Amino acid sequence: MRRPYAVILAAGIGSRLGNPYPKPLTPIGNNETIFSRQLRILRDFGLRIMVVVGFKKDLIMEADPHVLFVYNPCFDTTNTSKSLLYGLKHVEHQDVLWINGDVVCDPAIIGQMLERNGSLVAVNNAAVGEEEVKYNTDDSGYISSISKTVNQPIGEALGINLIEASYLEQFKSALDTVKNEDYFERGMELLTQDVGPVFKPFNVGSKACVEVDFREDLEQARLMVSQSSK
Predict the structure, then answer these.
(1) What is the Cα–Cα distance from 107 to 43, expressed in whole angstroms?
(2) Which domain holds residue 110?
(3) Which residues are bridge partners to 100 per DSSP?
(4) Residue 85 has what pLDDT?
(5) Rg (alpha carbons) of the chain, rounded to whole number
(6) Measured between alpha carbons, how far is 104 from 78 in angstroms, rounded to an integer?
């Protein structure tokens, strides 16, 4: 099992959920928040962790001071592409697993990704709505497009990704090139355009994974956590 550097993207405002605090600090049951659960899972796999913070950063930093924090000072005018770039500037010659700070998932998803070779994107093949990040593949099964506006998507990208060290510097350059308002998926697309196929979809199958954007997502995540504790 490989041991990539793990980066949690926790800089966003998360206004759609309506919390007065950063979304990763949302309680989800079992005396855990989204953030504390992510940290526990990543630590269980022995991963070194970096957290990119922005909105009300002190609250997240005080929640667990035992990880490396990187501050995105432009969190209110940039998107996940630039938050990820702020983090990756501190990583060299290493595989990197990064996860959105609002993802609640079955730990087995992380474990199985660490056992696979290559650069990976956790996906499912469920029907997707307008707000979800969608993906499509080329004839070889590699991801060819990944965004919220993919035509004829075959499923949803779930916000958990892993890139091999050999592509890291080129990926940083791609993230530096994209617009401030772009999601990091745009950098993934540019990398693919520049160097050819990079990311393989990792289908999570029936394993649960929820990206908490709205209240109904939060209820789904809490149900998932409740059921997994039984």
Answers:
(1) 11
(2) 5-228
(3) 9
(4) 98
(5) 16
(6) 23
- CB–CB of 101/9 below 8 Å? yes
- Tell me the CA end-to-end span of the chain in Å, nearest whole number: 28
Query: What CA–CA distance (Å, rounded) separates 224 from 207?
Result: 10
Q: Which stretches of the chain drop beneath a pLDDT of 70?
A: 229-230
| Closest CA relative to residue 54, chosen from 34, 38, 77, 26 | 77
- Residue among 85, 83, 57 nearest 171 (CA): 85
What is the reported pLDDT for 191?
Answer: 98
Q: Which two tokens stand for residue 86?
A: 């702020």
For residue 52, the domain's CATH number is 3.90.550.10
Q: How many domains does the chain contain in total?
A: 1
pLDDT digits (tens, 9 = 90+) for 63-101: 999 999 999 999 999 999 999 999 999 999 999 999 999
Determine whether 46 is exposed, middle or buried from the number of CB atoms within 10 Å of its CB (0-12, 13-18, 19+): exposed
- Look up residue 145 and give its two tokens: 């497009």
